[in-house]
Hints:
Strand content: 25-35%
Oligomer: single chain
Order of helices and strands: HEEHEEEHEEEEEEEEEHEEHEHEEHEHE
Shape: globular
Strand order of the largest sheet: 13-12-15-10-11-14
Helix content: 10-25%
Number of strands: 21
CATH class of the largest domain: Alpha Beta
Mean pLDDT: 92
Amino acid sequence: MSLFSFLKPTAKKATIMPAGISFEVKPGQSVLEAGLSHGYAMPHSCTVGTCGSCKCRVDEGKIRELTNFAYVLEADELQSNMVLTCQTALKSDAVFHIPNFELKQLHPPEDFEGKIVATEDLTHDTKKVVIELDRPIWFDAGQYVQIYSDEVYGGRSYSFALPPAEDGVRNIELFIRKVPGGEFTSALFDQKLAGSAVKVHGPSGNFWLREGRGPIICVGGGSGLAPIISLLEQAVKKPLGRPCVMFFGARSQADLYCLERIEAISKAWDGAFQFIPVLSDEPADSDWNGLRGFVNTAIASEAGQYISSDTQVYLCGPPPMIDAVSETVSELGILENNIHADKFLDASHGLSRAE
């Protein structure tokens, strides 16, 4: 054996406790990337070290920071050996403590070649975009993909706006909202990306419908309606017998969309289903007879019959909405482990999520 074989970096083992699973982490790979590649439901959202969703404690072993944790973690967290798995490489075998790790097998993310084949205006600032892939993709309803275009720098993440299929999906649908100053969305809405080739990486994300018997509360805001539609359209394929209420937070009637698809979900739902749109900026003299204000206030007043110890809450939308609703449903007695959120962040938050 040559000297060079001793110097060559080798794979290390990451163990997740208390789940008790282990997987190989290749040289230069992050712990998050390695776990996802093995199909494990690693907690994560942005994947670029800014959201903090993947933070956990390292109990044993030596690690290497791919970027400085101090940008996201507090001083006391750093002193407690907290790390970000998306920015952690291994220098030795290591043990990580992730208390709420879910033992669900996911489809490992892959790289696809794609082409934008169709767009459709849903509102004045939201489009449905259809991307044809070079081969089928398998995913869980509620997950997202990352889109890369030669026209702009970096990747953008968008949720599937359709349910998965047994044979995989070749033409994926996304809901994309125009972000002021957003490089990718500006090019898209200016028709500069029509018919263009893109690269697609996915699926990603830990947003899916969990097993259970209790009521379901879904909340979507803006383009955050996409994963909610995906999740519910998949759910109607298999009778659940669970009551569900869906809140859609929008600014005005002009921002409501997908109403026909929501109506179809309501008709096909196995059990009670209620749809409640809530408008925050609807003109006072309009013909709107529905709820006004913010979604969290509406939940506090309208969701009483759906509140139980087994209620699960699924939230997708901008951070202020997610934070407000999370606080409200917690005050109503919903357990933290039953609140599942997917924050739609953009460039203003230092991320490329949904920009």
